[in-house]
Amino acid sequence: MKNNNFIKNVLFTAVLSAAVTGCDFASAPKDEIHSDGKTMGTFFSITVVGDYPGGQKGLDRDAEEVLHKINKDISTFDKDSVLSKFNRSKSTEPFPITQDMADVIIESLRVGNDLNGATDITVGPLVNLWGFGPKKVNRDGNPPTLEEINLAKANTGLDKIHVTIGKDSAYLQKDNPDIYIDLATVGEGYGADKLAELLDRKGVQNYMVSVAGAIRTKGVNNRGKDWVIAIEDPSNEHAVGRNVIVPVCTKGQAISTAGSYRNYIAGKDGKTFSHIIDPSTGRPVEHGTVSVTVVGPSALWTDAVDTGLMVKGGEAALKYANERNIAIYVVTRNANDDGFETHYSRAMHRYLECE
101: domain CATH number? Predict the structure, then answer.
């Protein structure tokens, strides 16, 4: 699972330039309004094609209000957030949460159960144990012991938390006093969705929103073309610039990527440990899959699915996606470990056909 306050530090996703996508330079581009900054321990960016009520200042103000509310609900780095207070509580009685927070947790549980626990928002104790969470652990390159891993695993499990929703109330309950929820798995996607909801309410017809690697698009870019997102070539991980392995036309869908090659801890023996933790073993994944990109109806959903499929590994991920008609793109190390191979599900094909 992912490490800090919604940072995945995975494959870089970005809007491709017109030179890459083959846009028509003869047509004059429409005006754009931009808003960007830091949030959730990472960065956000909003591009609006055309007008926004209140202009630049209005967009900045409204975006900040949306993101501030999200942080106050589900940040593990804000000690006063609702989630932080829940995590500190040793009570097993129902704990009051916001309706929005309940929606995030319910969707996370639904996806996690469908993935047989590969996406697990209770994996926080293991994330912290390996040194990727807000509770930093300095092990001088030494991995946790088996005993430490087993102790942390005893405090994880999707079946150990419960959500109750009433007409005007929502509650979260833990079976074990030491349960610790980490919504970093889905936070970026949730943030992108809420920003997209804001733009929809304001009547914006053409936009792109990104919170780190989670992206939402609608309509067209400033040249009247489909938004095109780049998946980074992982062989370029140490270079200053970033190369594109494939362009993806989102066609109004959400897209997010989980990957293992940019955020890791180096052990004393030279072995690296990925920040993607397998809840079933309590250890970082060790297979050759370096990234999984998912396209779907909401960034919250793609963010939850991509991590679980990254845990499963490329072969299992493709099987899962093809059985459910899910669009995914997988990058794996080749058998000689000197290059990469790419594979994608049947449903992904339409998003690789860019005009």
Answer: 1.10.3980.10
Helix (H), strand (E) at residue 202 = none
pTM here is: 0.86
Kindly report the backbone phi and psi dihedral angles of residue 258, in degrees, each rounded to the nearest multiple of 5, phi listed first: -115, 135
Task: Show the domain range for 94.
Answer: 78-184
What is the distance between the alpha carbons of residues 306 and 13, in angstroms, rounded to a whole number? 14
Does some domain include residue 108? yes
> Considering the domain boundaries, does residue 309 fall inside one?
no
- Name the residue among 193, 194, 211 with its Cα closest to residue 7: 211
How large is the average pLDDT for residues 241-259?
86
Question: Who contacts 228 (Cβ-Cβ below 8 Å, separation ≥6)?
Answer: 15, 16, 20, 21, 247, 248, 249, 250, 354
pLDDT value at 102 more than 90: yes
Q: Going by C-beta distance under 8 Å and a sequence separation of 6 or more, which residues neighbour residue 60?
A: 35
Is position 319 within any domain? Answer: no
Q: How many CB atoms within 10 Å of residue 191?
A: 30
How much is the pLDDT for 271?
57
Q: How far is CA 106 from CA 1, 118, 194, in A?
A: 18, 16, 16
Beta-carbon contacts of residue 218 (< 8 Å; ≥ 6 apart): 196, 199, 200, 204, 205, 206, 207, 208, 252
Confirm if 60 and 49 have CB atoms less than 8 A apart. no
Residue 262 covered by a domain: no
Query: Distance (Å, rounded) from C-alpha 34 to C-alpha 318?
Result: 36
At 269, is the pLDDT very low, low, confident or very high (cuts 50, 70, 90)?
Answer: low
Number of domains making up the chain: 1
145 DSSP assignment: P
